[in-house]
Known about the structure:
Number of strands: 7
CATH superfamily of the domain at 9-152 and 169-198 and 247-256: Vaccinia Virus protein VP39
CATH architecture of the domain at 9-152 and 169-198 and 247-256: 3-Layer(aba) Sandwich
Helix content: 40-55%
Bound molecules: S-adenosylmethionine
Amino acid sequence: MTASINTSSAALAERLETNRKYSAVDFQDWLMQRLAVRPGADVLDVGCGTGAQTLAFLSAVGPRGSVSALDLSPESIATVRTRAGAAPNLQGEVADMMDVAEVVARRFRVKRFDLAQSTYALYYATRPVGVLDAMRRVLKPGGRIAVCTPNNPHGLIEFIRRFTEVPAANDANGRFGPDVLEPYFRRHFFVVDIALLCNVQRVPTVDEVMRFWRNTSYYDSAVADRVATAVEDEISRRGGFFYEKNSYLIVGSVPRPDANEEA
Ligand SMILES: C[S@@+](CC[C@H](N)C(=O)[O-])C[C@H]1O[C@@H](n2cnc3c(N)ncnc32)[C@H](O)[C@@H]1O
């Protein structure tokens, strides 16, 4: 299931900016509305990137709450810290999410969370279920886990597939919600909420489509000229390059007793 990733902080920032500018629905607003984080909450952000969710959590929790964020990329953590200013209730750590239990135990000041969440990151873990187990075990009573991931079909991937092979990992990422998360959440929570966002991107220029694609793990320079010509054709026929971009959010609350932990 593990996919290669472009962990570059600059590439992530550029992809997020294109998504923000050209989406029919603002993804971050959609996500935050569903997560409904309250003032005073303690939030764990796994695979926080450049802080798209971290900063929104910080403003939602206010001065009485906290956000503990981790990411593999030192540049991304530096960006989060800069963007958050001197917020004393933010702690950002460079770490592999596979080590989240140890990072909470030894490095984060806050040890228990009202919400442990990961957006567009968990499927990069070598063993996502191990990360979920660790996230589950650091919840306060009444706490929730939330994971958001891409969901198939992805319009740009389908378009690119007409020209070249797309790495199998990208298809697996788009099935991660139904194939991996849903069975896990059903096994461990009495209450499981799933929300789907069926978004559409309308990108107005060839350059922006190409730049976005170049920042993904399914870029293939060998077919770039042919793809650019086809994108140009779409834009002149339809007034923009349109593609479907789906997201899957799953939230678990009210934990089931864990047979292994009770034994
Ligand atoms: C697509 S970005 C999402 C970032 C952020 N949550 C957002 O939605 O903007 C995926 C992030 O996962 C991080 N990542 C990938 N593998 C990781 C790992 N094993 N441990 C921690 N972070 C990882 C990358 O560095 C990257 O910042």
